[in-house]
Structure formats: structure tokens, C-alpha cells
UniProtKB/TrEMBL annotation:
Top EC category: isomerase
GO BP terms in the entry: galactose catabolic process via UDP-galactose, Leloir pathway; glucose metabolic process
Catalytic residue list: H173 (proton donor), E309 (proton acceptor)
UniProt xrefs under PANTHER family: ALDOSE-1-EPIMERASE, GALACTOSE MUTAROTASE
Protein name (Swiss-Prot/TrEMBL): Aldose 1-epimerase
Native source organism of the sequence: Providencia vermicola
Record keyword Isomerase present: yes
UniProt-listed InterPro entries: Ald1_epimerase_CS, Ald_epimerase_bac, Aldose_1-epimerase, Aldose_1/G6P_1-epimerase, Gal_mutarotase_sf_dom, Galactose_mutarotase-like, GH-type_carb-bd
């Protein structure tokens, strides 16, 4: 795709920020999409970047797979780009067939955010989304804070406030390959342990059918450590999505932001990543549609990396029966905070 003049300006206007801890771990962030674009681990065998990313900001602007980006206002899908709140019908922009995906046509991943770097291990990105942006009600104030600790943990903290009733559901869309973003080892060669009790089957559009399916005796049961590729494409739900691209409902007693809800293991066992979150679910996506995506060291192909998008449930604005704790509906003039962290052990 040829970038427009405005898109080229946005790409040029973006900045890259580095955070480094005392052990030499380093992450790179971009004001384009408040994106996490590199995660460099100082291993005994040398430095290893375990995050898929674009080769430059023009490519980041052009790509459509959300490499490391903060997406919103509403992550994942809204069926037909339509919802009703307090008796009012809203139509938001559609950018995946009839669906609104990750906030619509001009979602937050394509915006240049303001940034404040407080110290070498912390940066805060901020954005104002005007009332009516992509069809959503109310003005939304967003702050995304990244912290890199000396314990090799990356913490992403979200703070939001809207002045009208509105769904708000932010996530980070990082793709991980713990063997290295330049490795030929795929997501399917990694092991995963995931404390999820149910998953959401989807229709052909990727929209949840409304059913919560117990993971017991299904190929979605990762409560015990399992190779991702072991039961791959062995059921109708996976075949319809080309792999795993499903919402996993996390164990409610673990979503305090401190306890581990998922552990992801490198093929050779030399790196582990533990995820903690305050969000009730996680979109588990094996990169099924990474089709010749320009990357830092090579073109990415299906299963080059895996995303763990912590979030409220997709299309939850249209499912009041799921309960308020899963819907992500923000009340006017109230501040909301969420957090997800990624602890690297090596």
C-alpha cells in the first residue's frame, strides 16, 4: 500500500523511546500507537529481541497486524460496528468486513501519542480521543504507562476517563517469539500454561457466538503446561480461525495484577515469560494471519509469534447477560485503571 502524504507525516513525526534496567534488559517504545516495538534480553548467549516488530515507522504505519500497538477505543470485535447504550444506538466505523476491529478504521494504533519520560525505566504516553471519534460517544482521556523494572518485568498500566457512557477496552498487541524475532522457530514450538476456565467459540466473522465453553476435555485446555502445536488445528473452532484466535476467560481468583495467569516458554527452555493482569480475559492468537509482514530481520509468516491480548470480552457491549465485570463499559467522569505485566525469566 502506498502511504498517503498525511500517513508519511505521521510516520516521520513519531519518536522512539528506550527503557533500560540495571541488568542491561532494554525495551523500545514508539509514540506511533504507544507501541512496544522491541524487547531485548541480555542472555548468556547474547542479546535476543523477543518481540516481532516493523523495520521502520513507515512500515509500522502501513502494516495492519498491530505489531506491539496499543489498540482502542475497543479492542477486538464489535459485531456489525453497532451497539446500544442507555437506549441510544451507535454506529462505529467498520474495518474488518462488517465488524469494527480494535477501535475502527483510524484506531489508536495509527495515532502519534504524546510522551513523557520520567526516568530511564519509565515512560507515559497520553492521548485525547474526541467525542464522536470513530463513532464512539464522549471524549476519552487515555494514559498508558510503561515501566521496566530491575526484576526484568515490563508493566503496562492503563488509565482512562470518558465524559459520556462508553465502552472502553484497551490492550497491547505485542507478538512474542522467545526464540528471537529472527528465529525460524515458531509459536507452535513454544509451551504454554494458561489459567483459563472457558473460551469463546466464534462465528465465521470471528465474533463470539455468545457461548462460554468449558475448556475441560477440549484442545483449549492449557491449565497444564502444553506445547502449543500439540493439538493444533484439531477441532472446528481452530480450523475456522486458522489456529488459535480465541478469547480465554481467566480464572477470577488470579486477576489481581500480581498472580501469574499465563506462562510462555521458549522452545529450548532458556526463557520464560509470566503474565499477570487485572483484566478478565485474554485473546490467545497464534499469528495465523501474519502473511509476508515486513519485520525487523525478515518477513513474518503465519505463527512467527503469538499475542496474549489481555482485555474485556469481545463484542461484550452487545452482551449484557455476561455481567458488568466482563463488558468494559465506562461510566462518565470516573477514572479507570488496569494493568498487565510481563516478567522475563532467563
Amino acid at each position: 500500500m502506498q502511504l498517503s502524504k498525511d500517513q508519511r507525516y505521521v510516520a516521520r513525526a513519531s519518536k522512539v523511546i528506550a527503557l533500560t534496567n540495571r541488568h542491561g534488559m532494554k525495551i523500545l517504545l514508539s509514540t506511533l500507537g504507544a507501541s512496544w516495538i522491541s524487547c531485548i534480553l541480555p542472555l548468556p548467549t547474547g542479546k535476543r529481541d523477543v518481540l516481532l516488530g516493523s523495520p521502520n515507522m513507515a512500515a509500522q504505519m502501513d502494516q495492519g497486524v498491530y505489531l506491539g500497538a496499543t489498540v482502542g477505543r475497543v479492542a477486538n470485535r464489535i459485531a456489525n460496528g453497532r451497539f446500544n447504550l442507555a437506549g441510544r444506538e451507535y454506529q462505529v466505523t467498520k474495518n474488518q468486513g462488517e465488524n469494527c476491529l480494535h477501535g475502527g478504521v483510524d484506531n489508536f494504533s495509527y495515532r502519534v501519542w504524546k510522551v513523557t519520560q520520567l526516568d530511564p525505566q519509565e515512560a507515559i504516553f497520553s492521548l485525547t480521543s474526541a467525542a464522536g471519534d470513530q463513532g464512539f460517544p464522549g471524549e476519552l482521556q487515555v494514559e498508558v504507562r510503561y515501566v521496566l523494572t530491575d526484576e526484568n518485568k515490563v508493566i503496562i498500566h492503563y488509565r482512562t476517563q470518558v465524559n459520556e457512557l462508553c465502552p472502553v477496552n484497551l490492550t497491547n498487541h505485542a507478538y512474542f517469539n522467545l526464540a528471537g524475532e529472527d528465529s525460524v522457530r515458531t509459536a507452535l514450538e513454544h509451551d504454554l500454561q494458561l489459567s483459563a476456565t472457558h473460551y469463546l467459540p466464534t462465528d465465521v466473522r470471528g465474533v463470539p457466538t455468545g457461548e462460554w465453553r468449558d475448556v475441560t476435555e477440549t484442545f483449549f485446555d492449557f491449565r497444564r503446561k502444553k506445547r502449543i502445536g500439540y493439538d493444533f488445528l484439531q477441532d472446528a473452532d481452530q480450523k475456522a480461525a486458522g489456529g488459535y484466535d480465541h478469547t480465554m476467560i481467566l480464572s477470577t481468583d488470579l486477576i489481581d495484577g500480581e498472580q501469574t495467569v499465563a506462562s510462555f516458554f521458549a522452545p529450548d527452555g532458556d526463557v520464560r515469560m509470566d503474565i499477570a493482569t487485572t483484566m478478565p480475559s485474554m485473546q490467545f492468537y497464534t499469528g495465523n494471519y501474519l502473511i509476508s509482514v515486513p519485520g525487523k530481520s525478515r518477513h513474518y509468516t503465519p505463527f512467527s509469534g503469538v499475542a496474549f491480548e489481555t482485555q474485556f470480552l469481545p463484542d461484550a457491549v452487545n452482551h449484557p447477560e455476561w455481567g458488568d465485570e466482563y463488558r468494559g463499559i465506562s461510566q462518565p467522569n470516573q477514572q479507570y485503571e488496569q494493568q498487565t505485566s510481563y516478567q522475563f525469566i532467563f
